[in-house]
From TrEMBL:
Pfam families: MarR
Single biological process term from Gene Ontology: response to stress
Keyword DNA-binding recorded: yes
Domain HTH marR-type: 9-140
Record's keyword terms, sorted: DNA-binding
The keyword Transferase appears for this protein: no
Protein name: RNA polymerase sigma factor
Molecular function terms, GO-annotated: DNA binding; DNA-binding transcription factor activity
Length: 148
């Protein structure tokens, strides 16, 4: 790789890291709900896909099943999800979002929208699509051209 490209990649890494920090700071500063992004991602996944086993949630969030246990315990205790028996395998449990979880998810979506608008609202639809295309390309596995 030539020097110019290496410098451009280093600069890009710094910018992406700064955006990630800004996103986290915005979330922490405006998060009136007291839940992490991972908690909200779990609620969203269950709302979109229906009941799921903890292993499916772990795979989706790219965390360990132990990590899912920690995250879901807080959501269960708050009444936002419930643990139930799997429909076809009584030995397995699955998690399902509750009506209260749906309500908190709707509130969090409003917060996320405000954060996204604050961070990216100055960009045109075309610029946003270009960013998405570029970042999606960066996530492709080089060997298989499939998302990692």
């Amino acid at each position: 790789m030539d020097q110019e490209k290496q410098q451009a990649i280093t600069s890009l890494f710094e910018v992406v890291s700064s955006i990630e920090r800004k996103w986290a700071n915005e979330w922490n500063n405006h998060n009136a709900l007291g839940f992490s992004k991972s908690h909200i991602l779990i609620l969203d996944y269950l709302a979109q896909e229906g009941p799921k086993r903890p292993s499916a949630i772990a795979e989706r969030l790219k965390v360990t099943t132990g990590g899912v246990t920690v995250l879901t315990t807080k959501l269960i205790n708050a009444g936002f999800i419930e643990k139930t028996q799997h429909a076809t395998d009584r030995r397995a449990s699955q998690l399902v979002i509750t009506p209260e979880g749906e309500t908190i998810l709707a509130e969090s979506r409003q917060q996320v929208s405000a954060i996204i608008n604050n961070m990216f609202g100055m960009l045109t639809a075309e610029e946003l699509q270009t960013l998405r295309t570029i970042f999606s390309k960066c996530l492709l596995d080089v060997d298989s051209n499939q998302p990692k």
